[in-house]
Prior knowledge:
Layout: H1 3-11, H2 14-44, H3 57-83, E1 100-105, E2 108-114, E3 122-125, E4 128-133, H4 138-143, E5 151-153, E6 159-165
Parallel strand pairs: 2-4
Antiparallel strand pairs: 1-2, 1-6, 3-4, 5-6
Helix pairs in contact: 2-3
Amino acid sequence: MSVGFLACKGFMNKGVILEALLEVMEFNLRRHHSANKSASAGATDTQSKAETKWDTCGLEASYLARGHAMQFSELATQLDALRSMPLHSYAGKPIGVGACVEVEIGEERSFYFLAHHGGGIELKLDMGMVTVITPESPLGLAVKGKRLGDAYILPSGLSGEIVAIQ
């Protein structure tokens, strides 16, 4: 067992990672809901009534409200999917959705959580920093299906190695 795996084993508590991801996404959901309410109020406010044919404040506010409502709906669907995501072990298996992965690029090691949603969210946890990646992201595409010890190459030309999987 390598030192990286021992450090990684304590580091990668997937339940804690998933809870932190859900918390960030729920915060974003509340933010979109609030923004939608504000934009909707602005669209229907009496001061938003067009005074000339070029006055589009009310129309623009309604477009903004619709955009926030669409983002809210999409985020709510993503949250439901994440809440039902199974967290099983990927030890000895190819990397897939739900895996925690430690990678090494040069001298630097980084930790990632592969999920269908929340890509790009960085989670600062007591156990360290974990970045959420999706299977469609460049790194997600590069590591999905790989196994412990496999090398991968990013589209940018950077290469790395899979140091630990959980």
